[in-house]
Amino acid sequence: MVRLGFIIGFIALLGILLSGLAAYRVHDQELALDRIALARAIDVHASLVQDRLTERELLARVASGLFRAPSVIKPNMLEPLRSAIYAFKTDFVVAGWIARLKPNELAAAQAAIAGAGFPNSKIRTFDDKPIDLASVTQPIDVLMDLEPRSDETMTLPGRSYDQDQVRGAMLARARVEKRSVASDPVPLLRGNGPIGVIVAAPVIPEGAVEPAGFVTFSYELASLMLTNDDLSLFSVALKDPRKDGSELVANDQGVVSTRMVSADAPAPSATRTVSFGGRDWQFSYYAKTNSARRAEQTAIIVAAIGFAITAMVCGLFGYVAYNNLRLSREIQVRIGFERRLTAVIDELNHRVKNILAVIQSIVTRTLRHGSDIDSARELLIGRIHAMSNVVSLLSESQWQGVKLKGLFEARAIPHADRIAVSGPDIAVSARAAQSLSLLFFELASHSDEGLSLVGKHPHITANWTVTGEEGEEIFHFRWEEFNTSQATRRADSDFGLILLDRVAPEALGGTAKRFFTDVSYVYELTAPMETVIDMTERDRTEKFSQPVRPAR
Hints:
Heat Shock Protein 90; kinase; single chain; six-stranded antiparallel beta sheet; 13 helices
């Protein structure tokens, strides 16, 4: 009996120890998984918010860049921008044109506002108090036009925001720094309106040093914060820059309100900082569930089950060991997946930023001051179409490269049916494909202008060769337009010259030259093959497509 009791006691003690060990392990694993999931969800949310804010700041910069020699007293300055603004499909509340008016322009501005059909044409303060125009000695900022126009917004033109603490400070900073600036959170449209943020981009005429006015976009704060997700693991709050110890939070209906944070309040699970309008904004994330309590409850259940089946401690030990191994592998797979996902997102962000930078450069160079809008529009659409086609080709190949002949077969190349293409069917890297696609578009888009007036068309040849020994091969590309001359061929645009002479050669690490012969126009590009095919980029992309396997 004593021996049996000793054995039973030993088995019971072993069962208690194993049950306690299992409970401890499960507690740690549940806690680790919850923390990993919460941290990953917070990182994804912060990244989405930053991308959203970047898009909206880009809209303000692009809109301000579309102005050409603005007349500050015109009440319909947004007319040319309406289609472009709505093409972005953003969620702004109001887009406005705020002109910086000199004292001698105020009377004309009042007449222009009245002539545009706005009900109140008087120049007044931001809270609708009249201004004695004779007492104005310095330029003031007056709202002259806005979009969309409704019964509520039609009463806003004519207001001066110099004495508005929030908007006035925003405009003053934008005027000094000459870049887009975001305001503090402020009620929009009316005193009890939804809380939002305004971003102002200065419009500086060519040759001027001071802005003629500002293009503004206002957004509701809830949509910028991406708060209305009932299934998320956390709630998000924005630190109020106007007051220490307060936060801006949104309810399920998207209504933003201010709450004070006491010293004994629970600390946020994490904080993230995003940039918008020339300033940093801090987000606080609060977990909706108590991970530690849930992990403790899970551990208690496991321990209770272990205590109840102490007679089967060996089986329980095997079961727990098996589950520990399975959970460990799942954690390893999940951690590996999270790392892979982070690397993919970082790579995607890098590529998207590069594409956005190229598109921004295309838009800026194409829509330069003094350019013909019809011609600029066609060139802009064509260049962006060329970028879109090469991105589509890269997506189809999982960014493993594009066949060089495939760039000529794309519909984005003008007069592709008159181009005789020859050369080895090599696959160029993603970076080289983007540069070469724009290069081919620029060459093709300038090849037909002059001779079309006399009913002729140039015959075009595009050929490339690869020379040299293995490891030191050289890529040679030659574009030649016959039946053309310097007198008949349209001159390359500023953007085209930069692309032909500098951007494309530098992107490929090579050199380029262009010249006219007696019967043709020739463009030649020479670059090392190792930069044209870029195997390091291809190897890096291949790693993202490999399956995630648990560590052994």
